[in-house]
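Students often ask why we bother predicting the structure of a whole assembly rather than each chain alone. The short answer is interfaces. A chain on its own may look different once its partners are present, and contacts between molecules only exist in the joint model. In this exercise we take twelve input lines together and write out one structure for the complete complex. Read the inputs first and try to guess which parts will touch.
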Amino acid sequence: MSNVYKKVELVGSSREGVDDAIRRAVAKAGETLRNLDWFEVKEIRGWIDEGAVQHYQVTITVGFRLED
Amino acid sequence: MSNVYKKVELVGSSREGVDDAIRRAVAKAGETLRNLDWFEVKEIRGWIDEGAVQHYQVTITVGFRLED
Amino acid sequence: MSNVYKKVELVGSSREGVDDAIRRAVAKAGETLRNLDWFEVKEIRGWIDEGAVQHYQVTITVGFRLED
Amino acid sequence: MSNVYKKVELVGSSREGVDDAIRRAVAKAGETLRNLDWFEVKEIRGWIDEGAVQHYQVTITVGFRLED
Amino acid sequence: MSNVYKKVELVGSSREGVDDAIRRAVAKAGETLRNLDWFEVKEIRGWIDEGAVQHYQVTITVGFRLED
Amino acid sequence: MSNVYKKVELVGSSREGVDDAIRRAVAKAGETLRNLDWFEVKEIRGWIDEGAVQHYQVTITVGFRLED
Amino acid sequence: MSNVYKKVELVGSSREGVDDAIRRAVAKAGETLRNLDWFEVKEIRGWIDEGAVQHYQVTITVGFRLED
Amino acid sequence: MSNVYKKVELVGSSREGVDDAIRRAVAKAGETLRNLDWFEVKEIRGWIDEGAVQHYQVTITVGFRLED
Amino acid sequence: MSNVYKKVELVGSSREGVDDAIRRAVAKAGETLRNLDWFEVKEIRGWIDEGAVQHYQVTITVGFRLED
Amino acid sequence: MSNVYKKVELVGSSREGVDDAIRRAVAKAGETLRNLDWFEVKEIRGWIDEGAVQHYQVTITVGFRLED
Amino acid sequence: MSNVYKKVELVGSSREGVDDAIRRAVAKAGETLRNLDWFEVKEIRGWIDEGAVQHYQVTITVGFRLED
Amino acid sequence: MSNVYKKVELVGSSREGVDDAIRRAVAKAGETLRNLDWFEVKEIRGWIDEGAVQHYQVTITVGFRLED
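Now the answer. The structure tokens for the assembled complex follow.
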């Protein structure tokens, strides 16, 4: 009930778009962290090459429950 | 010309992504409010389950014209 | 190495969604500016008509390297 | 003594200026709400036509006391 | 699953402190709204009289699920 | 429909007040830019001389439609 | 050349509007402080009575040069 | 009616909690200032010693009416 | 003297209130980290059930000295 | 232990750079205030003349302990 | 007296530090713009290579007076 | 191409100034983390002793690429 959570800040990138960049960051977090619970978008940016968007980059914080 | 508008704050959620979460919140607002005119995104977050994004949640304010 | 960059602020719009609105603003910038390097999303909003989203509007700043 | 207040967000517009746009939004609120107590300015913007300011638009939140 | 929520902004006040001011605002909201789900603190302020704190005032937004 | 807009940042000043400082900045922009569409106030400040306000200074961004 | 300035925060109020509230706060500061140089607007709010604006209240910081 | 107020920024600390830290800062202000009217919380932080909270520290601005 | 500190972001929750939620987050951090030095409150929110506050949730960053 | 601190806002300027502008503002504060404890940088700006930086201007708040 | 100013946003970079990055951005602006008057620091970041700072990058806005 | 990055928040301190405090925080991070890529300055503050700056303290976030 009175859980404590930790937040870590990650940056996902994708050629497709914002939604996919978030999914990639969350998936990466899931490789090493358990009990992932929510994410919050902090910043959206990206890289341009030859006049077109190359990568969308989304900074998120991911919250996960600390185990007792 | 010198209209007055009201803004209400809504949170839409979607399994698909950010664009769809906005559409759902706007559609819900349209069920009870007339003269909807614009929206502004305030926050993007979401829920994670079993290490993957479950829902994107987007908080928007929706502006609509008050009738005379 | 010690380059100087300039940022310009653009607003792209799209019926499809946020990713596409960014792409359109970047493409427009590419018509007149060279050495485009990155973008940062500043604001997401949009217009509603007949109770449904008509356009997503995304304000971005685009950074490009100034030539010597 | 231990009152509870509610805040609503309104956008007033005026050809004259910022002060008048606030007055119009407050007056509109007064048509349907009682016990209006204070306002806070959140944003000032406006529309331009033929190179001149057409309307000042001021977003305010209006606070009013909820009755027991 | 893909619920839509609405947020309303309230100001609770209390002679005791911040926690109690939040409780009072939430309780008041519960008199007229169903499905209250969460709150977010936006601002903490208060009134002083004769050199001592008279009331703590806490502005919160309360989120509640809209029914289908 | 899917227009792209550009925003430029200007600072207008006036001895009269905030509304007039905005009008002057917009008028100046109109001398060299076409299709001006809206403005957003970013900052209000000013200069004082001999204990009285000398100039109101208002920083605005002006948005205008880029032509195809 | 390498002056040091101090900033104080004041709240001016006026029945007329924002410009006048600023003027009143600056004039009051000028009664006790010398070398007033500039002001910055931090917040605009006001009080409502009987459904109409009673006072505009503008919070400003006033900067003044400290003497050697 | 058209009063001018001044705001000063204080930091109160307490072993008990946030409410008490605010009370202590206000009480200290009351020792040297008259006509204290309201406070606004700007920041909440604190010091930790041996893995436990030692002091809550709350930064507030206190507003008081300047006398004519 | 020229120490380097690290900050981690935690979310504590409590049925009692804000102060207790902070204490719980700090205590949890103390189980695995040494040299905890200070905390900063980033966000206060909470969950509501049956029209009453169930948990206060406080997001803090905790700073601790890195050892040489 | 349960000290109360006051913060004052100063602007230091220097031809050399940011660090020196801070040192000058702190030194000036030390001429009239005792128990200076910490500073926080709020804003960095500066003046340009003939296409080169003339002065760096740094706004800081300085915290000092109020004596009993 | 009632001048209008324009602001442009630039990013200067330097191996030396923040002050030098600002100087470089201002110098570059001076190559093509006249009447440069002031700058404001918006963001400080930089690039790391092999575990050490390679470049400091400072985003500034530069204000210059528009000629009649 | 579609890398995921993590950000950690560090506080470097230095008697010399802001640039050096950043270098120290980055160097410390480099002792335990690989693939450090960039930093962002979040806050500049410092400690004062006997009326003079003793330490500059700079809070940065350091981004590094997570390995596959």
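Check your guess against this: The longest strand of chain K covers residues 36-49.
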